[in-house]
Amino acid sequence: MTVATTNITDGPFAGNSVTVDFDYTFRIEDEDQIIVYETNDNDVVTTLVLNTDYTVSGVGIDGGGTITRVAGALPTDYSWYFRANYDQTQNTSFSSQGSFLPEIHEAAFDKLAFVTQQLLDLNERTFRIAQSDPGSASILEIPSAALRADKVVAFDSSGDLEVIPFDTNVTLTAADVVTTNGDVVITNADVIATNADAASASADAAAAAADAAAAAVSASIAGVEWQGPWSGATAYAVNDAVQDDGSSYMCIMAHTNQQPPNATYWELLASKGAAGAGTGDLVAANNLSDLASAATARTNLGVQIGADVQAYDATIVVDADIGVSVQAHDADTAKKDQANTWTLQQTFKETAETVYSLTGTVIDPANGGIQYKTLSANTTLTNSLDSGQSVVLRIADGTLYTLTITGAVWVGGSAPSLPATGYAIIVVWNDSGVIYAMHAGDVA
Question: Please, which of 131, 276, 376, 428 could form a disulfide with 204 given CB 3.0 to 4.6 Å?
Fold first, then answer.
């Protein structure tokens, strides 16, 4: 055969939780001459095992064949990738006086082409010097393990490879971390210097906020290990970071008891900002009692009494102030969610009664001042009216049933006869514990 393709890889194939079989398009002479890589939904790549994770068909076919997943369909968010894995051996022997067998010779030459393609593919995946670069290959020589330990790879001014200390390749300036009014601030948050006359906008308050922000930013810088306040008893390693005198530093040479800002051992990460305009300390334990002027502080915070807010006035102590200086509740104030007793005549614009369908046999004014009921038999009603309460009843009686109201004194001397059609209107009320009832008339 001829080798007409340079392709020795296929994929990636995206999983869809349906497909089980995936095609490869290059020739292999044995099942183990292909590698299958599986990437899961966490981007973890696994080299699969032949006949445990997959099976191969199409061995010896120029156009390739099929690889089948043993566990079933490839899940969504998974992927497969195939690569040829030709071994670098030559197992064909030719005798000096044997027959010339074209197929055997061609197979040996084909394998050489496959191995060459595999090596070329691997070469294309490496870092290389451009063919147009006249430099020597020696520029890529890497020093011994002892010389390159804890170093990073770089290129010098001539373009030659070199290894340099990691820390000298990292430059952090104050502007890279946190800026507040043009200054980078990392301070000791335990005690905050503040100007009591400008509590809401002082540079000290900004310093406290920048301190927390800078700590969070510095903690997120890859490779930096925050160690807190500097201590002469601590052995510091490269990339350890500390706080000292309001500024932060990163260790560039391992040591013990070399206090910042010693430039041999420390590199400045963020510098302490300028002090605020005020003087003195604001101590948390004093709960703001150490303010120089509470009135000025309230004004600076936008809560000036009489201008921004209204507050309690100690001079408002008599009833004469209510309704003049303030509006407030006292014992004579009516409340809508409580029972009120009126001692003088009141004028109301309007009232609205609740209309209630009386389904039981108890006249309860709490259900509404107007209640209606259709009789289905001779009916006796009781009531829960207190003195002074009343209810208007609308009674429908199409079959001439009788209506009795327990304990009621009827105006006119006796209970009325109910109409066969329409409604009877009856008023029931409690007067000093006596229940009265009156037939007001009938309506259609």
Answer: 276
